[in-house]
Design brief:
The protein has helices at residues 19-28, 66-71, 98-109, 112-124, 126-132, 144-153, 156-160, 166-171, 183-211, 220-235, 246-257, 260-265, 268-277, 279-295, 305-347, 350-357, 361-365, 369-392, 396-399, and strands at 7-10, 31-35, 40-41, 54-55, 76-79, 214-216. The protein is mainly alpha-helical. The strands form 2 sheets. The protein has a 4-stranded parallel β-sheet with strand order 5-2-1-6, with helices on both faces.
């Protein structure tokens, strides 16, 4: 049995944006945790800078469904997020000290690699982009799409050359917020969005460390940002903290082995039922997941978080999946080979075998006499062989969803 439950904290927002993420979490993890959207406004720090804007707090919509999920055997918990102007508070309720959080944010946005990955995420991932640049009135005829394109097209080096650091530009009240008319304004707004993203990321990681939650995201750029943080940690000689997140590894396996089409056909209610019916198989899969995570001690100096996960999927998961499918294929071949031999022996003519092989299973099992007895014996052997194969490969839990 596992020593640690896989309790995940979804951190990009107050609820998964895609229903498929919710279905995966129901099928895979022991507990799902979400938090209300925090209210974070950076209004003043020790240098006296003032910035208007931030994250607007809102309760998670899952607050209305906690009881329903728990009744269905899927523990879900909604946590209160920190509120108030982080930079002015000595403490943030439910989170780390405000000064510590701001130092974490500063370390992120002053890391050019972090900013590059954030900018690349805006370009590559529509889900990430919609979370970072929500729909709204951006003034001067700018909308969500045009703002996103300006931030994506920004030359970071040019945009940042007027200030000693990205955080210095963020703190410069002389550069207006929501001004996208020039590279400097775009650079400040890119950093401002990266600050908001970093605040949520760091709060989630801090909360997860304190509560024993595995952070969970469903847009690849979040993993890339996590990798940038790991790369900085390695430079400070802290490789032990740079393990992949078991939740991200679980999602990578799921996405590799089950078709999106099949997942879309599952309703949330189907996911509830499947979880209840396959608890032992899910447990075995999570045990296997923990073993895989332990094989990887650190991310590496390049912070290639996604690359590490891809490598584990390629070297560990896909071979196991192929082995399992091959075993089932062999079991099926052996079954029908034995059936053919047994029926020929019992009935004596190949023509009769062809007739039998065209019959459905339920009719075959109702056969009387030596042929019927042989069919039943072969079917029993098939059952035990298949069960043994499934015991050997916990990946069968996910593969079974595609059957």
């Amino acid at each position: 049995m596992r020593d640690t439950k896989i309790n995940v904290l979804y951190y990009p927002d107050f609820a998964p944006a895609a229903e498929s993420t919710l279905k995966k979490a129901i099928l895979l993890f022991d507990e799902l945790h979400v938090m209300d959207r925090p209210s974070i406004s950076f209004t003043k720090n020790r240098s006296g800078f003032r910035v208007h804007g931030g994250l607007i707090g809102a309760p998670s919509p899952f607050r209305d469904f906690e009881a329903l999920f728990k009744d269905e055997g899927v523990p879900i918990y909604v946590h209160t997020a920190p509120g108030g102007p982080v930079a002015e508070m000595h403490t943030a309720p439910g989170g780390p000290a405000a000064e510590e959080l701001y130092e974490q944010i500063t370390a992120d946005v002053n890391d050019l690699e972090f900013l590059k990955r954030f900018q690349s995420g805006l370009k590559a991932s529509p889900a990430f982009r919609s979370l970072q640049i929500p729909r709204g009135d951006y003034g001067a005829a700018d909308d969500q799409h045009s703002v996103a394109q300006k931030l994506i097209a920004l030359d970071l080096v040019t945009g940042l050359k007027t200030h000693e650091s990205p955080i210095a530009l963020f703190e410069d009240s002389g550069v207006k917020n929501f001004d996208y008319s020039n590279p400097l304004g775009c650079a400040k707004n890119l950093i401002f969005n990266a600050v908001k993203c970093s605040a949520q990321l760091n709060f989630a990681l801090s909360m997860g460390t304190r509560e024993g939650f595995f952070p969970l995201a469903d847009a690849k750029p979040y993993g890339d940002l996590l990798g940038a943080k790991y790369a900085r940690a390695i430079k400070k000689l802290e490789p032990a903290t740079n393990k992949i997140q078991v939740a991200d590894l679980g999602f990578a396996i799921f996405d590799e082995l089950i078709s999106e089409e099949r997942l879309e056909k599952l309703t949330v209610e189907d996911a509830f039922r499947y979880r209840k019916a396959s608890e032992k198989a899910r447990e075995e899969f999570l045990e296997h997941l923990a073993v895989l995570q332990a094989k990887q001690t650190s991310i590496g100096p390049d912070g290639n978080y996604a690359g590490v996960i891809d490598k584990l999927v390629t070297t560990e998961i896909l071979p196991a999946a192929r082995s399992f499918r091959n075993k089932l294929h062999t079991i099926g071949d052996n079954l029908f080979g034995k059936l053919a031999t047994g029926v020929v022996t019992a009935l004596g003519t190949a023509a009769t075998v062809e007739v039998f092989m065209n019959l459905s299973w339920d009719k075959l099992l109702l056969l009387a006499g030596p042929a019927g007895a042989y069919v039943i014996k072969a079917a029993i052997e098939h059952f035990f062989a298949e069960r043994a194969a499934k015991r050997e490969c916990s990946i069968s839990y996910i593969l079974a969803l595609d059957e």
